[in-house]
Fold:
Amino acid sequence: MNTMGHFRSQVPTHRQQTRLRGPTHRGRGTTNTYTFNGHAAKLEDTAERASGCGDLHAQIDKAALVRHAETVTGQQVRMSEPFSAGQYWMCFEMVAEDDGSLVIARVRLPRHPDTPPAVGDDDEQYAIACEVATMAYVRQNVPAATVPRVYAYEPPGSRRAAEVGAAYMLLEGFYGNTLQDIEFDMCQLPIAVQEHVIAQWTRVQVEVAALAFPQIGSFSPEY
Structure:
């Protein structure tokens, strides 16, 4: 399951603690810095051929994302300017005005030019639907794992996806620090802190290992 930041380690303070912050405040990109070793150029070339517009940001209706987030939260939200992006997804952070809660808009990027030809659009869409189903199942059945709530998933062809300009999902966001915010090399942490982190991870593994299923395979959307 390849989703951002599902396991958050609660690291005891052993030095000056980094201030808790949202995902976009960890040196994420802007429209001027999004390069990712040439991936941006490849994707923009793909977008240019597909729609005549090479500006990925121009193809995404951020106002539509904000409207949907306001519908699911029941609050006004504002979108942060920084974003994060990878090979398949571009993520935007939205902050609710009333309680400061976070909503992450995870927007599907155009089909990456390096995707193997044998992987069709239907395969990609099914894999995403399975990912959403897996997140929902783990959230319900593995209490030790911190998994974001999936507020909505809009697949290709849905009305909202057409309004935004791409398939997307709205996820619960988390404030906090990653382990690397505290110490890049975990082995440099005090032994007691290492044991604390490993104990947390072990609890997750134990709960996952206790799950049993009648078949081998992916979680389908109808699990």
Summary: Helices lie at 39-51, 56-59, 62-73, 121-141, 159-164, 179-182, 191-209. The chain has a mean pLDDT of 80. The chain has two domains: 23-176, 179-212.
